[in-house]
Amino acid sequence: xxxxxxxxxxxxxxxxxxxxxxxxxxxxxxxxxxxxxxxxxxxxxxxxxxxxxxxxxxxxxxxxx
Amino acid sequence: xxxxxxxxxxxxxxxxxxxxxxxxxxxxxxxxxxxxxxxxxxxxxxxxxxxxxxxxxxxxxxxxxxxxxxxxxxxxxxxxxxxxxxxxxxxxxxxxxxxxxxxxxxxxxxxxxxxxxxxxxxxxxxxxxxxxxxxxxxxxxxxxxxxxxxxxxxxxxxxxxxxxxxxxxxxxxxxxxxxxxxxxxxxxxxxxxxxxxxxxxxxxxxxxxxxxxxxxxxxxxxxxxxxxxxxxxxxxxxxxxxxxxxxxxxxxxxxxxx
Lengths: 65, 258
Description:
Chain A is mostly beta strands. Chain A has one helix at about 15-25, and strands at about 1-5, 10, 30-35, 40, 55-60.
C-alpha cells in the first residue's frame, strides 16, 4: 500500500498504525503520530487502519530553545 | 518587600524566574543536572519529524516531573503551522503551555510578529497558556495581551548570538505598559545580562544557548540562577538614581587641616 510518511511516498506492508510503528522499529515512548492531520493516540494505533494515499507524520520531541 | 515573590503564569506558580531550553547540549544527560543546579522550573522542547535511521533519545525522559514543559513551535513559518504544532504537543501530553515561534527569516531568525499574533489569537481561545516570542513592539504586545497571551517574550538579541539586551529601550516600554508578564527570551549570553534584564523589571528570562554551550552547563545554570535572583531582588529593592555628576558618599566637611 502506498502512503506518505514524513513527506516521502512509501510502499508499506503494514495495515495499521501499530504495524507501521513496529515495522520501522521506532521507540514507542517518544513517538507522536499524526494521520491526515489528526493525532492518533497510542491506544488507537492497533485499530487505526491505513488507507492508500494516507499522509502520516511520525514525530518526536527533541532539544530546542 | 513581598515575602512571596513567585511568578504566576498559566495557572502555575514559579519560584524560579529562570526559564531554560533543551537545545544544543552536548549530551542530554547534562539537562537534568543543569535543571537541578539552576532551579529552573520551566524548560522548552521542540517537535520534529522522527529520523528512523538515527537512534533518537526521548528528550522528555531527561526532564524531571515537576518541571513544566514549554513546547515551542519552531519550524513553523505560518500561524497555521504553529497552531498545528501546538495542538500536537498538547495531545502528546505536554500540557497547556506553548511558546509560539514563527520564523521565516533564516538569516537573523527574526520572529514574524504578524503570524505570531494570529496564532496567539487562535490558541488562547483553545485554552493554551500562550507565550509568544516576538520582536519587542508595544502596539503588538498590547494586541497579544488582548488576544489572551499568558506572557509576552521579547528578544534581547537574535537567537544564539549571546549579545545581550540590544533591544533594551523597547523591552522597557513593554515592561512599563503591559499587564502580562514580560519574559526576555533569546540573546542573553551572560549571567550579568540576565541580571540586567531582571533589574529593569522583566518578570523572567529564558536562557538556552548561553547555558547549553558553556563548557560546564551545570555550573553556568547555577550562575544564571544567582544572577536572576540578584537582578530580581535589586528590582524589588528599587535601584538608586543615576546622576551625571559625582555625589560624594563621604561627608565633604570636617577634613584634616581645614
